[in-house]
Amino acid sequence: MKHIDEFRDGALARQIAERIAAEADPARRYSFMEFCGGHTHAISRYGVLELLPENVRMIHGPGCPVCVLPIGRIDLAIGLALQQRAILCTYGDTMRVPASEQLSLLKAKARGGDIRMVYSAADALQLAQQNPDREVVFFAIGFETTTPPTALVIRDAQRLGLRNFSVLCCHVLTPSAITHILQSPEVRQYGTVPIDGFIGPAHVSIVIGSAPYAHFAEEYRKPVVIAGFEPLDVLQAILMLVRQVNQGRAEVENEFTRAVTAHGNQAAQALVAQVFELRPSFEWRGLGEVPYSALKIRPAYAEFDAERRFGLDYRSVPDHKACECGAILRGVKKPTDCKIFGNVCTPENPIGSCMVSSEGACAAHYTYGRFRDIPLVPAAAEALPA
Ligand code: SF4
After folding, report:
1. What is the SS3 assignment for the chain?
2. Which among 68, 353, 354 is the best mutation to test ligand 1's pocket, defined by most ligand atoms within 8 Å of the CB?
3. What pLDDT digit, counting tens, does each position of 275-298 carry?
4. What residues of the chain score a pLDDT lower than 50?
5. Which atom of ligand 1 is nearest to the CA of 345?
6. pTM summary value
7. CA-335 nearest atom, ligand 1
8. Hey, whose CA ends up nearest to atom 7 of ligand 1?
């Protein structure tokens, strides 16, 4: 298949890996963060880590949409379905993210909530048109990639004069999260998360372009290479990062030129700016409150804002005490550092959000076999609620 097969060529992958090994200075370590869960998935799926020399390491970042959703936001969505009796629509992976009281949207559905999985924001709008006597709420999550379709349905709902449709907006922003990581004590103060550069996201960058990353290169002296999701894309990006580090450069480079431009999709950006504005602060799972890191619906579209329509009050809820998702999302720990990884917490029974989606670091490690040496830990199992 064009644009896929040629980027999965094993012989070429080994050649790039050999170049990385040849050019990486054996006297130093290289630590790069792949921000995006799509890259985390690709790295695990194709065994990219096994191809890298010992002194070139990857750190998983927080760019998995369902992983960063805090429990309090899922609780709001469940409340809309169970207490407000709304039809609650959302994307598939969101259904299984653990919430308070051992619930998830899927379990709330089993308790009678009218919760429906949709493939697009447009499906939710259609449901509202088909059910004029019911409130229909679209639980909108994700980074810049999924934001334009949400903006579009809000604008369409206004144009159509729909009175029963609203959006629980939980869209978050990539550049603010990267800034937050770079300013975290683990990176700046303690050096426990040494980051020499970033692999920039693929799909997000199609929308926002490569220009927004210039700040990290200039201000924080961190190289960024935007890469596609195929194994050769990732390996080539790592080689480009090694070269930047070796040459003392900190620039934004674009490996994914077949899809990403400097300024991205400006029509999509204009649509998003028309419908959304910045939230002063938003809680991320693992990162805590991150200033100006998420979007809310502008007053001109207030009638479609589920938070205003239902008078919702956000309440922060701590993660399960055995779960290390927070530390994993900050790059401080690896999935295998969690005591319940692969024994109590599995994709069939996720205890934390990183085990839910294929883009989550724990799910990616588990699915591609990095769990086989994990023993059952009875103490950890006993720590869980019955
Ligand atoms: S293995 Fe499960 S509980 Fe542990 S950090 Fe990952 S998602 Fe959280």
Report:
1. CCCCHHHCCHHHHHHHHHHHHHHCCCCCCEEEEEEEHHHHHHHHHCCHHHHCCCCEEEEEEEECCCCCCCHHHHHHHHHHHHCCCCEEEECHHHHHCCCHHHCCHHHHHHCCCCEEECCCHHHHHHHHHHCCCCCEEEEEEECCCCHHHHHHHHHHHHHHCCCCEEEEEEEECHHHHHHHHHHCHHHHCCCCCCCCEEEECCHHHHHHCCHHHHHHHHHHCCCEEECCCCHHHHHHHHHHHHHHHHCCCCCEEECCCCCCCCCCCHHHHHHHHHHEEECCEEEECCCEEEECCEEEECHHHHHHEHHHHCCCCCCCCCCCCCCCHHHHHCCCCCHHHCCCECCCEECCECCCHHHCCCCCHHHHHHHCCCCCCCCCCHHHHHCCCC
2. 354
3. 999 999 999 998 899 999 999 999
4. 372-386
5. 2
6. 0.91
7. 6
8. 352
